[in-house]
Amino acid sequence: MRANSMTSDSGAPLPPRPAMGRRTMLAALAAIGGGMSCARAASPVVPPGPDAIAAQWAIFRAQYFRPDGRIVDTGNNGQSHSEGQGYGMLFAVAAGDLQSFEVMWNWARTTLQHTKDKLFSWRFLPDHDPAVPDTNNATDGDLLIALALGRAGVRWGRTDLVHDAIAIYRDVLKHMTLQVGGYRVLLPGATGFVTPDVVTLNLSYYIMPALLQALELTADRAWRTIMHDGMRIILQARFGQWRLPADWVAMDRHTQVFSIAKGWPPRFSYDAIRVPLYLYWAHMLTPRLQADYARFWNHFGADGLPAWVDLTTGARSPYNAPPGYLAVAQCTGLASVAELPTLDHSPDYYSAALTLLVYIARAEEQAK
């Protein structure tokens, strides 16, 4: 919805949006890295519409949604995460499934949301006592839930959901951002990522559609700075022969130099695969960035895409990427023509989630 103000079904006003829309935002960011023009992968494949999203959501819901509202990560022993709740809620909004959305949101806020702030514990262990042993948050989960709430509030005219989103965004801004030299960075979580010398970042936590919505709903210009600086980091923190982001990136607090973070495999894989997806979804995938992704995807091709590549040695995984990774490649530069994978071919929750995100991003591009 493009209007600067909205009302609910009862006539109560929703919070006003600033006049700056997405395209104006991108123009304001255009000086970074050669421009924020939308670099779309050339493909004759017809983008999926609402019916396709609803059909894929039905598959996702049948496999990963539990009656209490919990989204189950089948690749991690049936755990649940704030990230998964955010994805599930987003998918339900896109499919128009208010009932499932409300059950998922109720589970997230009663099981994972903190009492001292509006952020969420990152993991739920169904066979552990307590089931939430670690109250540290994951900023991507917080942002995904806020994005879903904001979209739900607009779709269903619910001021309460919009206000819930705004409260989460305000606490992310308050607790999860840090000024490091000339950058305002987005921390992955409250604890464990900052030392006197190094800040550890996860670039896939820069969920650009969520950050754009944060700016729209709160009118706080700090979100513009976070996106601006996030794009600066994404453009600089690229490694190896393919010039790709690592799953985890270290930022020297004294020099602001970026390197592959120690303590994690030096790979472009499970986390970093989302970086080009979120840029594509937000129309922020620059030609400069897309060229490197396309070079990587097309070197291996659709039938040989690796699940990970070592950014220090160039070694690839001995097995191919799951369908969700292929879906991301298809919308960010893979030249081969193919229909998007369907979720009934996904081996686990995460691959299914990536695929359904691509369905949504493509459908929104079609609807513009």
TrEMBL record:
**Annotated catalysed reactions:** Endohydrolysis of (1->4)-beta-D-glucosidic linkages in cellulose, lichenin and cereal beta-D-glucans
Query: Which residues are named in the active-site annotation?
Result: 140 (nucleophile)
One Pfam family from the record? Glyco_hydro_8
EC number per UniProt = 3.2.1.-
Q: Which Gene3D superfamilies match?
A: 1.50.10.10
Q: Which UniProt keywords apply?
A: Carbohydrate metabolism, Cellulose degradation, Glycosidase, Hydrolase, Polysaccharide degradation, Signal
Which terms does the UniProt entry file under GO BP? cellulose catabolic process
Question: Where is the signal peptide, in residue numbers?
Answer: 1-41
Q: GO MF terms on file?
A: cellulase activity
Please state which protein family the record places this protein in: Belongs to the glycosyl hydrolase 8 (cellulase D) family.
Q: Tell me the protein's name.
A: Glucanase
Query: What organism is recorded for this protein?
Result: Komagataeibacter saccharivorans
Q: What is the lineage of its organism?
A: Bacteria, Pseudomonadati, Pseudomonadota, Alphaproteobacteria, Acetobacterales
